[in-house]
Structure formats: C-alpha cells, structure tokens
Amino acid sequence: MGFMRPDNLYQTLILGLLVLLLGACGSTGFRAEVSRFHQLPAPSGEAAAIVPAQDIVEGIEFNAYANQVGARLDALGYRAAAGEPPDLIVTLGYGATADPGYRPRSGPTIGFGIGGYGSHVGGGVSTAVNLSGRDRVYYLHYISLVITEAETGTRLYEGSAQGYAEGSQLPELMPVLIEALFQDWPGPSGATTTVKFDRQ
User: Fold this and answer.
1) Is 97 helix (H, G, I), strand (E, B) or coil?
2) Range 98-104 contact pairs with CB under 8 angstroms and sequence separation of 24 or more
3) In this structure, are strands 47-52 and 88-99 parallel, antiparallel, or unpaired?
C-alpha cells in the first residue's frame, strides 16, 4: 500500500480536526457535587412534612420543588403527612448564586503530525480549543435537604448537591439536582461524590 497523496493527506487531517473540535464543543454535561451525612434508619412508612429552609419563601416555586422531593420520598417508603402530626420534618433549601470568578475547565489542545519519506510530503496541524468562557457569568446551583425527627429534633440526614451552569437556570436544573441527591439513597455518609449528567 502506498503513501497518501498530499491533497488527500490534508483533507484527512482537516476532517479529523473538525470531528475533534465538534466533539469538544458539544460536551454540555452538568456535574453535581453531592455531599451527605446521615444516621437514617430504613424507611417504614413514616409521615414526612416538607418545609422551606429559613431563606426560602413558601409559594408556587417551593411547592413545585417540594412535590418533586415528596415523590422521591414516597418511592422510598415514606409518606406525606397530610393533616396529621409528622414523624419527620424535611427542610428543603435551594438557590442559584452568581460566581463571576468561576471558569470551567479549558478544552483540550489538539495536534496532528505525520512524517514523510523520500519524495512524499508530510504535514501537520495544531490548534487549541479555549472553552474558558471568560465573558460569561456562571452560577452555582444548589439544593440542600435536612431530615429531623419531629418529636426529638434529632438530625437524621444532611445532604446537598451543587453544580455550575452558565446563567441562572434553577427551574431547569432542580430535577437534575434532586436526581443527584437521591441517587443511591441515602448514599455514602461523610463523603462527597460527583454525579455527571448529559445535557442537550
């Protein structure tokens, strides 16, 4: 098999470069850092009441997120405290805070190099992909959950999930943060794990 012609060589290099560039630019994943501490017994049908954290106003937005959290708790074996004294108090907090100093990780540097022999010509292409987003403002989106015994006030669970995204996108990211927080419930106590999500 002979060497590639110079024109075909450069076409191949450019095609490969474009594929890698598109792959780098198309990476739109969301990373959530999840921390949990707990001494939570296995659920046995305890009635749980979801209440807002101190800095959260109880309203339409809170109720929407509380319903999502309540559905997760219900699937785990708890139940909503409807008109009865709760066994557990679930305190829900959330928010999005601008962080002008935050910069996402830079994209990879891409390079190609092919040697030649004799009269055959070799070529090389090199470039860098800068995904630092210096002109963009990123927000830290977060959710926190604290579960206490209603009767004694003993804390049974403290958990949080947080991650960065361009702009304030809390309504869109809350289902993702809730998913991260409830993944492998109750999760490892005293540890921080990273949960990655693909976003379109």
Assistant:
1) strand
2) 98/137, 98/138, 98/139, 98/168, 99/137, 99/138, 99/139, 99/140, 99/164, 100/137, 102/138, 102/140, 102/164, 103/132, 103/133, 103/134, 103/138, 104/131, 104/132, 104/133, 104/138, 104/164
3) parallel
> What is the pTM assigned to this prediction?
0.72
Residue type for 177, please? L
Per-residue pLDDT in tens (0 to 9) along the chain, 200 residues: 554 444 544 444 443 433 333 344 444 589 999 999 999 999 999 999 999 999 999 999 999 999 999 999 999 999 999 889 999 999 999 999 999 888 886 554 444 444 444 554 455 444 444 444 457 899 999 999 999 999 999 999 999 999 999 999 999 999 999 999 999 999 999 999 999 998 54
The number of beta carbons lying within 10 Å of the beta carbon of residue 163 is 23
Residue that has been written with the tokens 């098999």 in this structure: 1
Q: Which domains does the chain have, with CATH numbers?
A: 6-12+33-187 (3.30.160.670)
Burial class (CB in 10 A: 0-12, 13-18, 19+), 10: middle
